[in-house]
Specification:
The complex is a heterodimer of chains A (312) and B (311). Chain A is mostly helical. Chain A is built from 14 helices and no strands. Helices cover 77% and strands 0% of the residues of chain A. Chain B has a single domain, classed as MetI-like fold (Orthogonal Bundle). Classes of the chains: A mainly alpha (312), B mainly alpha (311).
């Protein structure tokens, strides 16, 4: 739409409005009401649909299993019925008769932190190169990264499964972290590149004229200026690594003491001996860290994720 | 004293900085993918897994087995239905959500964040809550269905492959478990579409809408002829992205149904061949077929984004 178009539209409009005022007004007002009501109905339904499953999770984790089996449809529970015994059982180690989720949280946390650290180092360097330097092969490399991002993990699962079996690396948390790094680095580079691109080049040039090397430029100028985006990227990578399921399933299943929280919950959910309420406590334990991180960094994460959409 | 030009120096530095990433991607992704291609042409099972290498006796046997088995074609069809259903579902719900939250109101910020919960939650936790809620014995959905909606008996949403019910006097049969899995996907991924669409909505110029209001258009007309056409590029992009991601999805179906009751998508079938049947060659062959389809989608994706950038 050009300026001329909109100018024409605004000048032509008053006449038509005047003509249509008497006839159309009431109809339009009724339409406005209908859509106004529809809009609120939609908002309420969407809110229920997104939040109720989480309330249900929380609720089942604090109700005694006998009560749930007796009266499964109740969403409102009296306070004296509530109990924390499910949490106690799920977190206690297996030697003490629990389900060992505290240990699984340690494993998940370890894998996720290693993944974040390695991914950050590699992607900061990579993103700087991609956003600032002209080098041979930049185009093809970008293509390969995009392909990695879009390719099916199950395709990778086969050779890695065979390789890890051959090298007896199954059950090894560090090996799992390496697989996660390969999956998250391309996305991390993409996110960081967009932020680096917003830092004025002249700042870096000025520093180089003053005698800084490239390494010093990255450390003293690019990094401090993009600190918020680096935090956002780390949290995003942490979430991916913490949530991951398929590779954990393939590589850790036989060794219970190495399970991640996701794997633990999925393996135990098939068993009939463990009460559902205990497993619900497990899924709260799995979900809460992610929700906390998400709400801490929501704005940054959302901006990072949608920065590509603004254009298209 | 250096003889290298500045451009040459820059090029070398660029390669050096990208090399750690490149190394990881080559070792953990590219070489394994090439190896998969070679494995697909070899006869490898549990017994000779230790000797599985890049070279071996090449054979077309795996592809023969895969293409002649009815199970593969069924699962390919299931994958396509599942992918189309989930893609459409998530985008339509995402669009509705974005339109409803377009104009500011008190509490929109927190609601907008809450809307993203299904997307960020660990998939294992989300599927677990759904399986419990849909459980025929003590799930809340079946309990409420019987208490308030007058269901005669509990419905096994995740383990029953088809359900017949009467709608306006007509007998309708639906693939129940597959439908449930599709609804789950729409629930889990509508936030993704919502994010992209609302970002675009808020960047739209207000003049067009204002001019149309002055012209006496209805809300529906403004949506149909002004807003929607401007959203089409982002919706096209989302469709392709969601299609690619859903097509190779493994976690969701595996965790909800284990691939039973008519929900066996190709990726779950590959997993079965790999772990339960230990037929690595056939697993590799099937994953390659899956990848071949994906290559086509990715080419379409690149064409679309390029067209979007030029426009």
């Amino acid at each position: 739409m050009t300026v001329a178009d909109s100018a024409a539209a605004t000048t032509a409009a008053p006449a038509r409005v005047a003509a249509g005022r008497r006839g159309r007004r009431p109809i339009r007002r009724r339409e406005d009401t209908v859509y106004g009501v529809l809009r609120w109905v939609t908002i309420v339904i969407l809110t229920l649909v997104t939040i109720v499953p989480f309330l249900y999770m929380l609720l089942l984790s604090v109700r005694p299993i006998e009560e749930v089996l007796l009266d499964p449809g109740r969403l409102l529970v009296s306070l004296d019925e509530l109990t924390l015994s499910s949490y106690k059982e799920v977190l206690t180690s297996t030697e003490d008769g629990g389900q060992g989720f505290l240990g699984y949280m340690g494993n998940s946390g370890f894998v996720a932190v290693v993944t974040v650290f390695v991914t950050l180092v590699a992607s900061i360097l990579g993103a700087y190169a991609v956003s600032r330097l002209r080098f041979r092969g930049r185009g093809p490399i970008g293509f390969v990264f995009l392909a990695v991002y879009l390719f099916p993990p199950i395709l990778l699962a086969i050779p890695l499964f065979v390789l890890f079996s051959q090298l007896s690396l199954r059950g090894n948390l560090l090996a799992l972290a390496v697989v996660y790094v390969a999956q998250t680095v391309p996305v991390a580079i993409y996110m960081l590149r967009n932020y680096f691109a917003t830092i004025p080049v002249s700042l870096e040039e000025a520093a180089m004229i003053d005698g800084c090397t490239r390494g010093q430029v990255i450390r003293r100028i690019s990094l401090p200026l993009s600190a918020p985006s680096i935090v956002a990227t780390s949290l995003y990578v942490f979430m991916i690594a913490w949530n991951e399921f398929l590779f954990a399933l393939l590589f850790l299943t036989e060794r219970r003491e190495r399970w991640t929280v996701s794997l633990g919950l999925s393996r135990l959910s098939g068993s009939i001996e463990i009460p559902t309420t205990v497993l619900m406590a497990g899924s709260v334990v799995l979900t809460v860290p992610i929700i906390v991180i998400f709400f801490l960094a929501e704005r940054m994460l959302v901006e990072g994720l949608t920065s590509g959409a603004e254009k298209g | 004293m250096t003889t290298r030009t500045l451009a040459r120096q820059e090029s070398l530095l660029g390669l050096r900085l990208i090399s750690p990433t490149l190394l990881i991607v080559i070792v953990v992704v590219i070489l394994p993918v090439i190896w998969t291609i070679s494995l697909a042409f070899q006869d490898i099972g549990l017994i000779n897994i230790q000797d599985a290498g890049f070279f071996g006796e090449y054979t077309l046997e795996n592809f023969e087995t895969v293409f002649t088995s009815a199970g593969f074609w069924t699962s390919l069809w299931t994958t396509i239905v599942y992918t189309i259903g989930a893609t459409l579902g998530s985008i339509v719900v995402g669009l509705i959500a974005a339109l409803a939250l377009r104009r500011p109101f008190r509490g929109r910020g927190i609601l907008r964040a809450a809307m993203l919960l299904p997307y960020v939650t660990p998939v294992v936790a989300a599927t677990f809550v759904w399986t419990v809620a849909l459980n025929p014995q003590f799930g809340i959905v079946n309990q409420w269905g019987q208490d308030f909606l007058g269901w005669d008996e509990p419905i096994a949403f995740l383990s029953q492959s088809s359900q017949t019910f009467t709608l306006f006097g007509l007998e309708v049969t639906v693939p129940l478990a597959l439908l449930t899995v599709i609804v789950f996907e729409a629930w889990r991924y509508f936030p993704f579409a919502f994010l992209f669409i609302i970002a675009r909505l808020q960047a739209l110029p207000a003049e067009l809408d204002e001019a149309a209001i002055v012209d006496g258009t209805s809300i529906w007309q403004r949506f149909r002829y002004i807003t929607l056409p401007q959203l089409m590029p982002v919706i096209a992009l989302l469709t392709i992205l969601r299609f690619i991601f859903t097509f190779n999805k493994f976690d969701d179906v595996f965790l909800l149904t284990g691939g039973g009751a008519g929900t066996e998508v190709v990726s779950v079938r590959v997993y079965e061949f790999l772990t339960a049947r230990h037929d690595i060659g056939a697993a590799a062959a099937q994953s390659l077929v899956l990848a071949a389809f994906l290559v086509v989608f990715i080419v379409v994706y690149m064409r679309t984004t390029r067209a979007g950038e030029e426009a």
